[in-house]
Amino acid sequence: MDKIIVLGERDNVATCLADFDAGSVVHAAGLDVALSDAIQFGHKFALTDIAAGAEICKYGEVIGVASVDIAIGQHVHVHNIESVRARGDKANGDQERGDKS
Amino acid sequence: MTETFLGFPRPDGRVGVRNQVAILSAMDNTNPSAERIAGIVAGTIVISTPFGRTQIGDDFEMTMKTLTGICAHPNIAAVLVLGLSLDSAEPLADRIRPSGKPVEVLGLQEAGSTLALTTEGARIAADLVVQASEQSRQACPFSDLTIAVECGGSDTTSGLASNPTVGRFADRFIDSGGTIILSEPAEFMGAEHLLAARAENPEDADKIYAMVQWFEDEAKRNGVDMRGINPTPDNIAGGLSTLEEKSLGAIAKGGTRPITQVIGYAEPPTKSGLVIMDTPSAACESMTGLVGGGAQIIIFSTGRGNAIGAPVAPTIKITGNPHTAKSMPENIDVDVSAIISDGENLNVASERLWIEVMKIAAGKITRAEVLKEDQLSVSRFGPSV
């Protein structure tokens, strides 16, 4: 595989399959992107500026939303993207336990 | 062309890929005797659980159903059941007997002492093993084989390399008449719409949504953010940011074929094709349910490195992570990290996996088997009384 891959047409993040230093200029999705952070093997960076609250897409599907404004070339991970699913920390926590059967 | 595998036909018509004798401890207090007997007699395997007594309702039935499924399993040739008394061991033995295999029962109180139980048990187990060894493998169709697909210690490479390799294997195996079980619905979250769309009937699509919803409601009821629990810290270190991202990679193990059935924990599938089983996401608990449901082989995809196997069913470890392939070769059966490092084609990697699965079905020992990396863990929901 290429050292940087983009999995879906609507994706706004790319995945690195090697370690890259901050300041590296890489080619992905037809763009030359300057990485503002070091990106480790298996981690993602932004292919475009992403506003806080906007969806993050990988595999052509939504994997979460930006929790802060993210600039092109920045590392995209748990510090700036949050899940929109199973957020008990944002729920009241007083729901009845469901019936599994 | 009818493709076949070499297995042990059992009296109930099912086919094993292994031929072991189970020493089943029906209660927690006979676990040490079961361990001693297995230490004395070659060709035996201990089936035990720390929870045997005073479970009630769903928990009791879950334990009984799962232990029954594991011992009636076609990879098991015969069973010796141990209990504190015959009365406590017989109900479980009665549930296993419809499989038609030899089932013997011993009670500690009837035997007199744990050492007497061990001696008598070892003598019976030795007879069962010698008897089982007369059976030979025969060519059987893939319609007699159920393979479960599992993942653990996932990272970015799981979704890009090992899971898609397993998915291509799954498609080919289903097209050849076999059954694949995909489990762990909490790790469908964010990708459940893609699976529901593949359900052959609308009721199963509804079940897929409902299973995922149950886990999501549990997270909300407990007031937790699932991140840090799932994805786990090692998933996060490996580059996975959210459960949705992990799920989209995880479902790749299930390939692309239609979903024919949705079943509960430790229930046997009654249809061939791609079947979904409702299990928790912890690998040992999930695999115990898969074996309880009769899966003869498990293909276990790992990224960061997870070495544990299932009891009874040979568990084939596959990784696409070059670091893991290098650091834990003694735990990995199939290394597809060349997909990442050298651009190996997924179809080529999947063909290598196919060849290895067929060898292991025919008796080649897995890394988890040879290192005795197995753990039985039955799901439970409430306290004992």
Task: Describe the model.
The complex is a heterodimer of chains A (101) and B (385). Chain A contains no helices and nine strands. With 101 residues, chain A is mostly beta strands. Chain A has one domain (4-88): Archaeosine Trna-guanine Transglycosylase, Chain: A, domain 4, CATH 2.30.130. In chain A, strands 1-2-5-8 form a four-stranded antiparallel beta sheet, with no helix packed on it. A three-stranded antiparallel beta sheet of chain A has the order 6-7-9, with no helix packed on it. In chain A, strands 3-4 form a two-stranded antiparallel sheet. In chain A, a hairpin with a 2-residue loop joins β6 and β7. Chain A is globular. Residues 93-98 of chain A have low confidence and may be disordered. Chain B is of the alpha/beta class. Chain B has two domains: 20-132, Rossmann fold (3-Layer(aba) Sandwich); 141-370. In chain B, 41% of the residues lie in helices and 18% in strands. Chain B contains 15 helices and 14 strands. Chain B has helices at 31-40, 57-72, 86-96, 108-111, 114-132, 156-175, 192-196, 202-221, 233-237, 243-250, 283-292, 322-327, 338-341, 346-361, 367-370, and strands at 4-9, 15-16, 20-25, 44-47, 76-83, 103-107, 138-141, 146-152, 179-182, 259-263, 273-277, 297-302, 315-319, 334-335. In chain B, the strands form three sheets. Chain B has a seven-stranded parallel beta sheet, with helices on both faces. In chain B, α1 (31-40) packs across α5 and α6 packs parallel to α10 (243-250). Chain B is globular and about 60 Å long. The model of chain B has no long low-confidence stretch (mean pLDDT 94). The chains are: A mainly beta (101), B alpha/beta (385). The A-B interface holds A 1, 5, 7, 15, 17, 40-44, 56, 58-59, 61-64, 76-78, 81-91, 93-98, 100-101 and B 58, 155-157, 159-161, 189-191, 194, 213-227, 236, 238-239, 241-245, 248-249, 264, 303, 323, 339-340, 343, 381.
